[in-house]
Amino acid sequence: MTQSDKTVDLAENLWKRLRSGKPPSGRHPQICGDIPMAIKRDGTWFYQGGPIGRIELVKLFSTVLQRDEEGGHWLVTPAEMARIDVEDAAFVVVEVRREEGAENTDAGPVIKMRTNIDQWVDLDENHTLRVEEDSTSGEPSPYIALDRGLEARLNRASFYQLVDWAEEIETDDPAKTAIGVYSHGRFFKIGTVENDEK
Length: 198
What we know:
The chain is α+β, with helices and mostly antiparallel strands.
């Protein structure tokens, strides 16, 4: 059986479980432990060591992916749940757009982000931005919150686009200025800069 055949079999079994309805007797999904599936930092999904080449299958798996409070990632069907290995975030933002005067935003800008599975999400109060900095290199790693506890990491080009749109606002610390972007009427901080001493 080829890697592609194995992935298709896994997808077919998952689809059957998804259509099976609620767990017997109303029980919670049974924990089945880890399965040999992983998502690498670049957003590529692997099964049994080989990449899943069909985006349709990746999209199917993504519909049942959840992240728990400890950061673990699980495929959850009505009857079963199994943990998978995620190297960083489950998805990668590959494109960002800014729309001026979009509907329902009081004419303010709206920033939209597209993930590597073609999911569009607005930067808003439910899908917020966070930026982590490497303690050694200082390199930023930006993420947008998705549904079901998941996140998507912005690729370099997407982050640079946000930086290009960034504005400065004052902070409680007179020695620092916050830089960030506005979307849906909210300010999302990208980082801070030191103010020049006068």
